[in-house]
Design a protein that fits this description.
single chain, alpha/beta, 7-stranded mixed sheet, 6-stranded parallel sheet, 11 helices, 16 strands
Length: 343
């Protein structure tokens, strides 16, 4: 089978198209024919040697969609379409390949109204969004801020919060053009930070109340500004650093409102948490309350170009200002430039 494999962790040039043996069904795994793979900044973080993994060479790809070939039993019969996420592409070979053996507990059936390419980009963004909201004790009527409407997590959290009954589901962008695009896509509470500060925008939208919950995958100055937008006893969850790994925290932003700051590592989540999150996501996908957006696809052999397009073609202004640290530990795909590669 064909696969795009990192021969070493030294950048784009290390990603090569190779022929590998087709995996077999063993140890309770399910054999999938991969139909599409999400392309995420985590892939680049690994490829550039900025992630702790001991396996090299490594087939990249942390999330994907495929068709069951064998080993799925009654829950995932042969021919079933599935999407999945796990340690693939990070600690074991991943989805940049034509076939993959996947643990059954990592699989989720794709709803009939979702195509495979769209499904390939769902697991990381929406699982992260739902787990983060749940850990933050989200309830109907809460106000949620998820900076960066163009990032996968920012977009997914905004969609999920709105669909689940948030009073306000607020996001942001550094670009006036992107703010207009977001509005055209139905996101009506997006702060254009080229025109106003993030905190000012949150207070304007909420009539001075602030945000009960902030889910931040950006880090850097955005995290600092988002903290100042918290409502009384609000919380901020940090789960990525696509702008910068370092942020200056004004402790009064926590002390005065008696707010909290949390972190989230999806690789540490127990199976029951992921299962519960999948159930919520699938229900919302089936109803059309949330909808993944795919703008571009690449063939498997052009996975390097897909990564370049994602990392270099979609960097925000803040990302460019911190270019050396502009690498996300967790996926932050752009809804303008979400990429998936077809086999």
């Amino acid at each position: 089978m064909r696969a795009m494999r990192a021969e070493q962790f030294s950048g784009y040039e290390a990603l090569k198209l190779v022929e590998l043996p087709k995996p077999t069904v063993s140890d309770g795994k399910v054999l999938l024919r991969i139909t599409a793979a999400g392309v995420t900044p985590l892939d680049y973080t690994i490829l550039s040697g900025k992630f702790h993994t001991t396996k090299v060479p490594l087939v990249l790809g942390n999330e994907g969609a495929g068709v069951v070939e064998a080993g799925g039993g009654t829950n995932f019969p042969a021919g079933a379409r599935v999407m999945f996420w796990g340690t693939y592409g990070a600690f074991e070979d991943g989805t940049y390949s034509e076939w993959l053996a996947v643990r059954k507990q990592d699989l989720c059936l794709i709803p009939d109204n979702i195509d495979d390419v769209s499904a390939a980009g769902i697991p990381v963004a929406y699982l992260t969004a739902q787990v983060a909201l749940s850990r933050a004790d989200f309830r109907e009527g809460k106000t949620v801020l998820a900076p960066a409407i163009g990032g996968s997590v920012g977009n997914a959290v905004t969609q999920m919060a709105r669909a689940l009954g948030a009073k306000h589901a607020i996001s942001s962008t550094t670009s006036h053009a992107k703010a207009k695009q977001a509005k055209a896509l139905g996101f009506n509470e997006v702060i254009d930070t080229s025109l106003e500060h993030l905190g000012d925008g949150v207070r304007r939208i909420t009539d001075g109340y602030g945000a009960d919950i902030v889910i931040d995958g950006i880090g850097g100055e955005v995290l600092s500004e988002a903290l100042a937008a918290l409502a009384s006893e609000g919380s901020l969850t940090t789960l990525g650093y696509s702008a910068s790994r370092k942020a200056i925290i004004d402790v009064t932003s926590l002390i005065v409102p008696q707010a909290s700051i949390w972190s989230l590592n999806m690789f540490l989540q127990p199976q029951r948490v992921l299962t519960d999150a999948w159930n919520v996501i699938v229900s919302l996908l089936k109803s059309g309350a949330i909808k993944p957006i795919v703008a571009k696809t690449f063939p498997l052999a052009e996975a390097t170009d897909a990564l370049r397009h994602l990392i270099e073609g979609s960097q925000s202004d803040s990302c460019r200002r911190h270019r050396k640290s502009c690498r996300s530990s967790y996926p932050a795909m752009s809804w303008q430039e979400i990429t998936a590669h077809r086999t």
